[in-house]
């Protein structure tokens, strides 16, 4: 059984201010910053129950008059998604900024009313609404209960606090909740809080981190549903933390509304959730390359590190500019050194992409254009008395833009030419909790206000949206200045839906083993919360890793959706002089780093296609095993393995001194050891050895993985030859998407989709392809079909054309209509011209000796 580890809110009120003020000097000795104490529900109040007093049928659901002058709306948005709202007198149905799709076609449904209950039925779900007391139950079309209210408490308001109690049983697992600490992917048993917090050097039990996504997935009897509590106030999720019979969620304030969406596949839940809150854009390819960063790199450091990457031929795409590039931390300015044209030209000449950090706070500094314009136009967050709120951050006393106002977002976006004019390619938003050094609990007082008139909101309500709206403003800068380029925004703070604008990095993690371990479940849950583009600072941000830790970290880091090495300033590293570039730990670790970074670049076509799935269906890139294998209960609590895209499973070493580990192989697949070719049946745990340079990887049998030659940076060489790394039993397929990876031209149809298929047909193997979309002018000249674990063929031909045998892998890649059999590797390479019209048939001499396959060379 899953052992819950209760998270604790570590900070006592009195130390909060001291901690945050001192944070810049000696943070490691202090408690992690946390918000003010949790508010609990009044247990007596939640026992009072609501009753249905009247029913009215609506076009897409029902309206219910409830006791206590409350009203409920239960609306069907689609056949498998409903929204439940319970409103106090005078309140309206609520949609936060998370919701991008408000208009849904009305699904067909039936309503029936009986004495004790009202029933809504669609083709996918049934909702039964109990009248006395009021309660909601969701069933699938076979009548199985998927989710129901816990009737002892039900749902309603405790004073200002909206709450919902739900029934659960011991076997129900929970995933999602955005960015969460802890070592377990299954969040059952956890006390979760959502209030964006600058939690420098957080730990495995820190309750409040940077991002708030009040969405989760429940999985019971192999069936999944999604639950999205759209409330931007501080919220709490007690996930069977008090009893195995119920869980509940509530918020400090705001309206009671949640969306229920039925799977039964997790995949369908996420597709629906991201239809509601938005999907990420197709990313620019360069953003999927490696990024390198450090707080307090000097201008010279940036140049030297960039040069060293190129000299050592370790692939990398991007250098980040942290806050020191600004003129005394004034946003949208350059200091002389970092703004120097020569530096930018050098980086450009080495084909580096460049990302600058940006903070929201604007230095209070009359004469500084940002301060003057923002003040003249009344753009700042305000104190309750209407005066401008002033708080300390890096530049000293600062103003905080009110990003809830459209005009402020536009103004903010319009300033980015200052960065773009230096050739900046991507933007990085930090400190957008917002963090305030001298504010209570490291943020603004809760009564600071945003917006005006009808749109006026308190910081208490708006807090979790601050980063979301800043990300939107930053994203809009691309539309303004680079209208046909794919935006890249990296943010520390999100609310539900922020995936539309930004990728997420998980803030100031620490160079400690449990942080490496924690990064896996953390990212997997972020991925299950609609945010596929996520990563952690490789090697850890705070503190410094040793050689072993960095080696293990880069092995994972090379496969993160967002892959960036980033580390803290030397001042904060407690005197440790350790740098964190791949070559800073000696030759062995440099070689290991290069090996896995090169592998990322080799897998770029596969990785890019995984991101296409993310953009089209909300599919996570770094997936927990349960995502694809929810019928196998043994996957539910696997927290230290993950699927990298659809076909590859990674089981990294995340503990010190370990050179061996257990690996669970999910049921229903045969798994191939990527390094040795050895095959294993699914549904078992195996033990594997993993010396320092070894990352255990398993590939699904009957899969095809598109790869390419390594590049030093994305776009160095055109993709002329696509290698289809194939593990065949009966049939392997891949739908290969290609476009320019940079512009928005794909929206006008400039993309290709090619369906590839390899099939065993008795004694021969057949390869065929079908062009589904052909709008992109591809560079692709040929495919190299690489068949792993096959014997030498007798002949290869397509219709009448006979493919000729050549004598090396290099030759096969450069000669069309050719093949090569690598005896040692037991792999057959076939070069198929991209314009081959016919099926390619591969004939063998005898019967394939399946038994011999597992003792291949190591
Ligand atoms: O208060 O810009 O999480 O990535 O290097 C620290 C300096 C501010 C926190 C970010 C970190 C960044 C650092 N920032």
UniProtKB/TrEMBL annotation:
<feature type="domain" description="Glycoside hydrolase family 31 TIM barrel">
    <location>
        <begin position="283"/>
        <end position="609"/>
    </location>
</feature>
<dbReference type="InterPro" id="IPR011013">
    <property type="entry name" value="Gal_mutarotase_sf_dom"/>
</dbReference>
<feature type="domain" description="Glycoside hydrolase family 31 N-terminal">
    <location>
        <begin position="74"/>
        <end position="238"/>
    </location>
</feature>
<dbReference type="Pfam" id="PF13802">
    <property type="entry name" value="Gal_mutarotas_2"/>
</dbReference>
<dbReference type="InterPro" id="IPR030458">
    <property type="entry name" value="Glyco_hydro_31_AS"/>
</dbReference>
<feature type="domain" description="Glycosyl hydrolase family 31 C-terminal">
    <location>
        <begin position="618"/>
        <end position="705"/>
    </location>
</feature>
<keyword id="KW-0326">Glycosidase</keyword>
<dbReference type="Pfam" id="PF01055">
    <property type="entry name" value="Glyco_hydro_31_2nd"/>
</dbReference>
<dbReference type="GO" id="GO:0005975">
    <property type="term" value="P:carbohydrate metabolic process"/>
</dbReference>
<dbReference type="InterPro" id="IPR025887">
    <property type="entry name" value="Glyco_hydro_31_N_dom"/>
</dbReference>
<dbReference type="InterPro" id="IPR048395">
    <property type="entry name" value="Glyco_hydro_31_C"/>
</dbReference>
<dbReference type="Pfam" id="PF21365">
    <property type="entry name" value="Glyco_hydro_31_3rd"/>
</dbReference>
<dbReference type="InterPro" id="IPR000322">
    <property type="entry name" value="Glyco_hydro_31_TIM"/>
</dbReference>
<feature type="domain" description="DUF5110">
    <location>
        <begin position="722"/>
        <end position="789"/>
    </location>
</feature>
<keyword id="KW-0378">Hydrolase</keyword>
<comment type="similarity">
    <text>Belongs to the glycosyl hydrolase 31 family.</text>
</comment>
<protein>
    <submittedName>
        <fullName>Alpha-glucosidase</fullName>
    </submittedName>
</protein>
<dbReference type="Pfam" id="PF17137">
    <property type="entry name" value="DUF5110"/>
</dbReference>
<keyword id="KW-0732">Signal</keyword>
<dbReference type="GO" id="GO:0030246">
    <property type="term" value="F:carbohydrate binding"/>
</dbReference>
<dbReference type="InterPro" id="IPR033403">
    <property type="entry name" value="DUF5110"/>
</dbReference>
<feature type="signal peptide">
    <location>
        <begin position="1"/>
        <end position="26"/>
    </location>
</feature>
<dbReference type="GO" id="GO:0004553">
    <property type="term" value="F:hydrolase activity, hydrolyzing O-glycosyl compounds"/>
</dbReference>
<dbReference type="InterPro" id="IPR017853">
    <property type="entry name" value="GH"/>
</dbReference>
<dbReference type="InterPro" id="IPR013780">
    <property type="entry name" value="Glyco_hydro_b"/>
</dbReference>
């Amino acid at each position: 059984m899953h052992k819950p580890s209760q998270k604790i809110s570590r900070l006592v009120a009195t130390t909060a201010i001291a901690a945050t003020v001192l944070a810049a000097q000696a943070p490691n000795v202090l408690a992690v910053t946390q918000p003010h104490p949790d508010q609990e529900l009044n247990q007596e109040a939640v026992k009072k129950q609501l009753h249905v007093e009247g029913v009215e049928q609506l076009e897409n659901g029902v309206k219910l008059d409830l006791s206590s002058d409350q009203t409920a709306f239960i609306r069907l948005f689609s056949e498998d998604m409903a929204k439940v709202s319970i409103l106090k007198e005078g309140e309206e149905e609520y949609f936060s900024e998370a919701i991008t799709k408000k208009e849904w076609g009305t699904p067909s449904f039936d309503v029936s009313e009986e004495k004790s209950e009202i029933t809504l039925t669609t083709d996918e779900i049934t909702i039964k609404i109990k009248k006395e007391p009021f309660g909601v139950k969701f069933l699938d079309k076979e009548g199985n209960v998927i989710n129901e209210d816990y009737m002892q408490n039900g749902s309603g308001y405790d004073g200002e606090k909206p709450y919902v109690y739900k029934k659960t049983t011991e076997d129900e697992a929970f995933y999602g909740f955005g960015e969460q600490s802890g070592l377990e992917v299954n969040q059952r048993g956890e006390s979760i809080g959502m209030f964006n917090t600058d939690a420098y050097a957080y730990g495995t039990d820190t309750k409040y981190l940077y991002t708030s996504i009040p969405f989760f997935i429940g999985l019971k009897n192999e069936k999944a549903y999604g639950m999205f509590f759209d409330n931007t106030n501080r919220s709490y999720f007690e996930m069977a933390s008090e009893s195995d019979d119920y869980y509940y969620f509530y918020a400090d304030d705001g309206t009671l509304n949640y969306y229920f969406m039925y799977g039964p596949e997790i995949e369908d839940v996420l597709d629906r959730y991201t239809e509601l809150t938005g999907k990420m854009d197709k990313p620019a390819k360069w953003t999927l390359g490696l990024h390198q960063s450090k707080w307090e790199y000097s201008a010279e450091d940036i140049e030297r590190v960039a040069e060293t990457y190129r000299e050592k031929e370790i692939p990398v795409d991007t250098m980040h500019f942290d806050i020191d590039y600004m003129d005394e931390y004034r946003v949208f300015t350059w200091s002389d050194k970092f703004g120097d044209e020569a530096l930018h030209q050098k980086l450009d000449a080495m084909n580096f992409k460049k990302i600058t950090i940006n903070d929201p706070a604007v230095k209070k500094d009359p004469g500084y254009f940002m301060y003057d314009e923002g003040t003249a136009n009344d753009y700042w967050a305000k104190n309750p008395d209407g005066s401008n709120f002033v708080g300390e951050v890096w530049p000293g006393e600062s103003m905080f833009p009110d990003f809830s106002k459209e005009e402020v977002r536009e103004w903010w976006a319009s300033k980015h030419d200052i960065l773009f004019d230096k050739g900046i390619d991507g933007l990085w938003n930090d400190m957008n909790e917002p963090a305030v050094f001298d504010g209570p609990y490291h943020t603004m007082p809760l009564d600071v206000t945003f917006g005006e008139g009808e749109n006026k909101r308190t910081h208490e309500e708006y807090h979790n949206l601050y980063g979301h709206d800043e990300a939107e403003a930053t994203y809009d800068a691309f539309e303004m200045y680079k209208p046909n380029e794919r935006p890249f925004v990296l943010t520390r703070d999100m609310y539900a839906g922020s995936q539309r604008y930004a990728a997420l990095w998980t803030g100031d993690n620490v160079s400690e083993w449990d942080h490496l371990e924690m990064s896996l479940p953390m990212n997997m849950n972020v991925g299950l919360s609609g945010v596929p583009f996520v990563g952690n600072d490789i090697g850890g941000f705070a503190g410094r890793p040793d050689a072993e830790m960095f080696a293990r970290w880069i092995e994972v880091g090379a496969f993160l959706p967002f892959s960036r090495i980033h580390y803290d300033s030397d001042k904060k590293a407690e005197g440790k002089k350790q740098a964190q570039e791949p070559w800073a730990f000696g030759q062995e670790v440099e070689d290991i780093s290069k090996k896995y970074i090169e592998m990322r670049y080799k897998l770029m076509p596969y990785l890019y296609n995984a991101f296409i799935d993310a953009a089209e269906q909300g599919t996570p890139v770094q997936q927990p095993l349960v995502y694809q294998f929810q019928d196998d209960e043994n996957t539910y609590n696997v927290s230290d393995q993950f699927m990298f895209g659809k076909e590859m499973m990674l089981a990294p070493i995340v503990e010190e001194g370990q050179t061996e580990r257990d690996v669970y192989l999910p049921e229903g697949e045969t798994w191939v050891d990527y390094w040795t070719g050895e095959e294993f049946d699914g549904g078992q745990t195996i033990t594997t050895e993993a010396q320092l340079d070894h990352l255990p990887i398993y590939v699904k049998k009957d899969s095809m993985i598109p790869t390419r030659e390594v590049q030093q940076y994305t776009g160095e060489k055109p993709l002329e030859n696509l290698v289809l790394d194939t593990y065949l039993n009966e049939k392997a397929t891949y739908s290969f998407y290609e476009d320019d990876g940079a512009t928005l031209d794909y929206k006008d149809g400039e993309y290709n989709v090619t369906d590839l298929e390899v099939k065993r047909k008795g004694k021969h193997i057949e390869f065929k392809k079908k062009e589904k979309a052909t709008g992109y002018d591809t560079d692709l000249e040929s495919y190299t079909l690489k068949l792993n674990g096959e014997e030498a063929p007798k002949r290869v031909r397509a219709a009448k054309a006979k493919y000729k045998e050549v004598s090396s892998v290099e030759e096969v890649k450069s000669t069309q209509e050719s093949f090569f059999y690598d005896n040692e590797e037991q792999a057959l390479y076939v070069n198929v011209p991209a314009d081959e019209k016919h099926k390619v048939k591969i004939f063998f001499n005898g019967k394939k000796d399946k038994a011999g396959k597992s003792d291949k060379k190591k």
